[in-house]
């Protein structure tokens, strides 16, 4: 195991010395939230947007933010390497109680953990990946970036076992998101992504792409995407902080857009890479 320095409850220490109690509510109940923030050459990408989402996730589970944004920045900065592209993972749980009880304990301090890891591009990151659709059986609180990810990992694992990179989830007849990504489709020349709701995580990459589309006069729409529309889309992309914009070239064993990344993806990816460079 790589023995990098991590942050835990006010201390920086080697990863293999970082310990939390077995009574931590994150461990017992998945009672916590997290963030994943890319860092390009040591600059946190849209730090404020990630902090605002952290605030919303924390209030969604009725937990106060333990720190103001400036203090978060102070905590995370020593974990960053200016020579690398990385992502910071941070997690806040409700903390460690004296006994296991579903209801919130009265006196409790949150557990705060953060670490950074290198961003390693996936095979197919630019040449396209396979995906499969699956019924979305998750709860109605998917807008909270909760550490409780059992459904997501089961979907992703099933996809991996079928030689796919991602599971695209479908609730009723409409697409929600990927197991760990948001979904975009190009339909009749228009970029479409499902609107924000309790059914999906409001991805920061998603928001940044819509802003780039707006600035560059690329027509887009936040609208529901039916399974049928997805299957006949000219292009499908998956977006996330760690995977950026990944083109899907095969869905449920059928080719998408002739089995190659499409022209709208090529344009958007170029604009996104230029935008990233401009923030370094
Ligand atoms: N996941 N939807 C889900 C369910 C996700 O887990 C993620 C990201 C996204 C994309 O959000 P963003 O663009 O803010 O990364 C959408 C992260 C990367 C993870 O869990 O590791």
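-> sequence recovered:
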């Amino acid at each position: 195991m790589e023995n990098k320095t991590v942050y835990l409850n006010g201390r920086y220490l080697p990863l293999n010395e970082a310990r939390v109690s077995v009574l931590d509510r994150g461990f017992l109940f998945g009672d916590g939230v997290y963030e994943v923030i890319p860092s390009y050459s040591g600059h946190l990408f849209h730090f404020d947007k990630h902090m605002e989402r952290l605030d919303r996730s924390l209030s969604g589970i009725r937990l106060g933010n333990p720190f103001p944004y400036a203090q978060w920045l102070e905590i995370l900065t020593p974990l960053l390497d200016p020579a690398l592209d990385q992502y910071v993972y941070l997690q806040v749980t409700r903390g460690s109680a004296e006994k296991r009880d579903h209801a919130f304990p009265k006196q409790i301090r949150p557990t705060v953990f953060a670490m950074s890891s290198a961003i390693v591009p996936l095979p197919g990151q630019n040449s396209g990946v396979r995906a499969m659709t699956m019924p979305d059986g998750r709860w109605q609180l998917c807008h909270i970036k909760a550490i409780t990810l059992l459904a997501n990992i089961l979907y992703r694992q099933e996809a991996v076992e079928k030689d796919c990179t991602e599971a695209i989830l479908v609730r009723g007849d409409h697409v929600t998101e990927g197991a760990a990504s948001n979904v975009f489709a190009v339909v009749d020349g228009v970029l479409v992504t499902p609107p924000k709701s309790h059914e999906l995580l409001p991805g920061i990459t998603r928001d940044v792409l819509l802003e780039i589309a707006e600035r560059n006069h690329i027509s887009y729409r936040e609208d529901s995407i039916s399974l049928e529309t997805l299957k006949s889309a000219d292009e499908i992309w998956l977006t996330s902080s760690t995977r950026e914009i990944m083109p899907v070239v095969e869905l449920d064993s059928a080719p998408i857009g002739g089995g190659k990344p499409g022209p709208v993806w090529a344009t958007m990816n170029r604009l996104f890479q230029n935008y990233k460079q401009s923030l370094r």
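The CA atoms of residues 126 and 246 lie 7 Å apart.
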